[in-house]
Amino acid sequence: MQTTTAGSARAKDEIARDRTWMYAFVFCFLALLIDGADLMLLAYALTSIKAEFGLTSVEAGSLGSVTLAGMALGGIYGGWACDRFGRVRTVAWTIMLFSVGTALLGFTQSYLQFAVVRFGSSLGLGALYVACNTLMAEYVPTKYRTTVLGTLQAGWSVGYVVATLLAGWILPIHGWRWLFFIAIIPVILSLFMRKLVPEPESWVKAKAERLETAGTVETQAQPSESAFKAVFGDPRTRSMFLFWAATAGLLQFGYYGVNNWLPAYLQTEMNMKFSSVTSYLVGSYTAMILGKIVAGVAADKLGRRAVFALGALGTAVFLPVIVLWHTPDNILWMLVVFGFLYGVPYGVNATYMAESFQARYRGTAVGGAYNLGRIGAALAPIVIGFLASQFSIGFGFLVMGAAYLVCGLIPALFIREKQFDPKTQ
Q: Is the model's pTM score more than 0.70?
C-alpha cells in the first residue's frame, strides 16, 4: 500500500512538473514572439517615419541604434534582475514595460520624442530576451536543451512573420502609428505568467545558498556586487564572459544591421513594391524559423560549437552572394536560404551561453555578455545608414558578412560547450 501511495505521489509530481514546464515554454515562446514582432514593426515603419519627420538616412538608422542601445542596457540589468528577483518576475515586468512603451510611440510627434520613448521601451525588450532564455535553460534537461531552446528562438522569427503580415495589412491603410498602438495587448500575457509559472529550482536553490552565505541578511547591493565579482574575479569565467561578449557583439552587428535595413534594401535598391517586399520576407522569416529548430536538434546531436560556427560562417559566405548575384528571378530563393542560415546561430546561442556559466551568476553573466555585445547591434543600423549614404545598402551588407565571419571563428576556437548543466549547476 505504501509503495502504491509513493508511486502515485511521484506520478502526480511528474504531471505537475510537466504542466509547469509546458506553461513556461508557451509563455516564453509568446513573449519572444512579441519581442521579435516589436523589433520588426520599427523596420517596416521606418520609411514612413522617415518621410513624416523629414529624417536623413543616418537619422533613420539612428532610431534602430537607439532601440538596440536601450536593449543593451535593459539586458544587462535584466540579467541582474533575474538573479536578484527571479526569472519569472523579470519576464512579467519586462513584457509590461515594453508593451506600454511601444504603444506610446504612436503618439510621438518628432524625431526626439520617438527616440526617447523608443529607448525606454527597448529596456524591456533587451531584458526579456535574457530572462526567457535563462528561465527555459534551467527547466530543460541537457540531452534535448538546444532542441527546446532552438524551438523557443523560433518564437522570435514567428514574431517577424506576424509583424510582416500586420505591416502589410495595417501600414498602407491606417499608417505607421497603428502598428505601435496594438503593442499594448501583451500586457495581458504578463499577468497570467506570474500566476502559472514558478521560479526554477536551480534559482531557488542558488538564492537560498546566497541568503545562507549572507547570514540571512540580504541587502539590495549584495546580489549585484557578488555576481559581478564572481564573473570578473575568476580568470576562467572572465575569459568566457569576454569571448561571449565579442561573439555576441559581432553576431548582433550582422544580424540587426541586415534585419533593420533589409526591407529598405528590397524597396530602394531592388525597386520592389511594399506588398512584394512583405511577401518575400515572409518566406525568409519562415525559413529562419526552420533554421532555428533544425539548429537546435542538430546541436543536441552534433554539438553546440560546431552548429553555431557553421551557421555563422555560412551566413558570412551567403551575404555577398545575395548582394553581388541577385536578380528578380533568383532573389526569392536566395532570401529563403539566407533566412535559414542566419537563423542557425540564434537556434544554438541561448543554450551555448547558458551552459558556460554557473546558476548563481548565470543571469548576470549571460545578460552582461550578450548585452555588452549589443554595442555592435546599436552601431549596425547607423553604420549601414552611413554606408548607404556614401555607397549603397548592399555595400553595408558586405560589411555585415565580415562580422559574421569573425563571429563564427571565436567560438570555434575558444569556447567549449556544456561547461555547466543549468538544471543542476
A: yes
